Amino acid sequence: MEDAKTVIFGYAAGVDLTRRDRQRESFKNGLPWEIGKSFDHSAACGAVMPVAASGHRLSGMISLSVNGQMRQQGDLAQMIWNPLEVVSRLSAQYRLQPGDIIMTGTPAGVGVIVPGDEVLVAIEGVEPLAFSIGPKEE
Questions:
Q1: CATH code at 95?
Q2: Does any domain span residue 111?
Q3: Which SUPFAM superfamilies match (predicted)?
Q4: Cα 105 to Cα 82: distance, rounded to the nearest angstrom
Q5: How many whole angstroms separate alpha carbon 120 and alpha carbon 66?
């Protein structure tokens, strides 16, 4: 696990979105669920804060709000595996390369977002990520 400290370049706020409608349709038809995870703009990622500037993000507040309403909130220390453990475990199964992005986990409170929603992801010590879900439907 100590090796993980030397290979992580930095940390960023990100969101790995899921299209539940596509996922359910695929499941119903006995197809792979992958289409529910691989659509345009499905993995928003903010600016990467180099470890040299931020240190390893092993504790600190993590949150997601939608239209100013808090939906998810927790502490990085509550993760089942911290980022160093995640990289260590993944590197035993996959060939990790410079530039790979690993998205970890999320606090409880996953929910629906719709066109027009404004989303803010915040992780203590990292630049926040703000984005919207397309134009509001009229």
A1: 3.90.850.10
A2: yes
A3: FAH
A4: 10
A5: 7
User: Residue 86 carries which side chain, given as an amino acid letter?
Assistant: V
How far is residue 74's CA from residue 59's CA, in Å, rounded to a whole number? Answer: 10
The amino acid occupying position 26 is S
- The length of the chain is 138
In terms of Cα–Cα distance, which of 8, 52, 46 is closest to 131? 46
- Best CA proximity match to 57, nearest among 32, 88, 90, 84: 84
Question: Which of helix, strand or coil describes residue 57?
Answer: coil
Burial of 85 (0-12, 13-18, 19+ CB in 10 A): middle
Please check whether residue 92 lies inside any domain of the structure.
Answer: yes
Give per-residue pLDDT as tens, 22-77: 888 888 888 887 777 777 778 899 999 999 998 898 999 999 999 999 999 999 99
Domain range holding 84? 2-132
Inter-residue contact 127 to 13 (CB < 8 Å): yes
Q: Please state the domain count of the chain.
A: 1
Predicted structure pTM score:
0.84
b/e string for 98-109 if b means 16 or more Cβ within 10 A?
Answer: eeeeeebebbee
